[in-house]
Amino acid sequence: MTTNSIRLDQQLIEKATIIAKALDRTTPKQIEHWAKIGEMMEDNPDLPYEFVKQAIIAKAEREAGKLEPYDFG
Q1: CA distances for 65 relative to 12, 16, 39, 40, 71, angstroms
Q2: Whole-number Å distance between alpha carbons of 34 and 18
Q3: pLDDT 10s per residue in the chain (73 long)?
Q4: CA–CA–CA angle 67, 64, 16 (5° rounding)
Q5: Which of 10, 24, 25, 73 allows an S-S link to 20, with CB 3.0 to 4.6 Å?
Q6: Which residues of 4-20 are buried (b: 16+ CB within 10 A; e: fewer)?
């Protein structure tokens, strides 16, 4: 993965640092997380935040091989 340096508002960095610590992430990973959610919300403006959040979690579970088949019946 290629990385680039960018300038960000100091208040954003400070808030990301606090949230990142609470959620056991690094500050850059917290900002990436917010960017991912923002992109998904802009691409899908009719979806509620909680749905987008659960979609991210489901994708991570699938990638970790932790999904179970659903029995419809």
Answers
A1: 34, 29, 25, 23, 18
A2: 14
A3: 788 899 999 999 999 999 999 999 999 999 999 999 999 999 999 999 999 989 888 888 999 998 888 889 7
A4: 115
A5: 25
A6: eeeeeeeeeeeebeeeb
